Amino acid sequence: MLAAMSGGVDSAVAAARIAEAGHDVTGVHLALSANPQSYRTGARGCCTIEDSRDARRAADVIGIPFYIWDMAERFHRDVVEDFVSEYAAGRTPNPCLRCNEKIKFEAVLDRAVALGFDAVATGHHARLVDGVLSRSADPDKDQSYVLGVLTREQLARAIFPLGDSTKAEVRREAAERGLTVADKPDSHDVCFIADGDTRGFLADRLGSPEGPIVDALTGAVVGTHRGAYGFTVGQRKGLHIDRPAEDGRPRYVLSVEPVSNTVTVGPRAALEVTTITATRPVWNGPLPAPHEPLACHVQLRAHGEVYGCHAELSGGDLHITLATPATGVAAGQAAVLYVGETVIGSATISGAS
């Protein structure tokens, strides 16, 4: 069995648990940058030089073989370039979700199977029950949302040893096992943006074309920006609007139009949507694809609110009708459907109204 070891506490304990259970385990760390210094370092990073060293030390403590796999080219193409192109198209991507889909459970799993491994174990906080993805026992750390894009075939070869544990329990166990990452902080932000400046990262690649910020209610130009890609639906801060709204209330980003390089803003009430259309549906749960409205729940962002809804597949797209309005729904994000704690499918949001 292959254990994907990021260098953090979760993947270290996951590897230790499956080794202790008697599996023949090999640890693998993914080198995701041809120039690791360009990625985040320290506690705020992910997949950095420090992480590879931490992963190797953990493997030594556990007593399993350890290798580093170079996935830099694939990661750059499928995650970094996808991130840039999605923003350029006016959408808001989730790079961690794309990394799970394209790297950890496509490229890595394909290579693992080709080498004779029967499954890949990771430190994700989620549960698999008879091959069906469900929420973690720790609601604050649940990662079923970012795994909701995986197919049934990928889930059949995945193992999540931490699904029944809280993060506090994982850290205590790591300390008891003598793993030096027991108190290592969780990674944050986008791992391939060294200084955390997403707008600057995109500006280096997409330029800084000036464009208008338009008030949706009056049609008036109320400000300018240096790249529509620097805004996302629901954003309130950092708009640099020249004049306040007539009612004195804050404005929010309502839409981003990349062709005209226009950002449209308006009142919070204008953000409310009750219908969502999503493309590239993945039906990975225990139920058949819903060709008639199915009562379920939907999560629209990582660690976001869960909404009651009816979902239906039609014309190759997923159509979702919310029981209560949602705000800040951005194209490019995933809509992950649940029945109770169980994931039943997902799709990529393309529009909302």
From TrEMBL:
Ligand binding (ATP): A4, M5, S6, G7, G8, V9, D10, S11, L30, G123
Domain tRNA-specific 2-thiouridylase MnmA-like C-terminal as annotated: residue spans: 274-349
Residues forming the catalytic site: C99, C191
Region (Interaction with tRNA): 141-143
Site (Interaction with tRNA): H124, Q333
Sorted UniProt keywords: ATP-binding, Cytoplasm, Disulfide bond, Nucleotide-binding, RNA-binding, Transferase, tRNA processing, tRNA-binding
Pfam families: tRNA_Me_trans, tRNA_Me_trans_C, tRNA_Me_trans_M
Catalytic reactions on record: S-sulfanyl-L-cysteinyl-[protein] + uridine(34) in tRNA + AH2 + ATP = 2-thiouridine(34) in tRNA + L-cysteinyl-[protein] + A + AMP + diphosphate + H(+)
EC number(s) on file: 2.8.1.13
Similarity-based family: Belongs to the MnmA/TRMU family.
Name recorded for this polypeptide: tRNA-specific 2-thiouridylase MnmA
Organism listed in the record: Sinosporangium siamense
High-level lineage: Bacteria, Bacillati, Actinomycetota, Actinomycetes, Streptosporangiales
Gene: mnmA
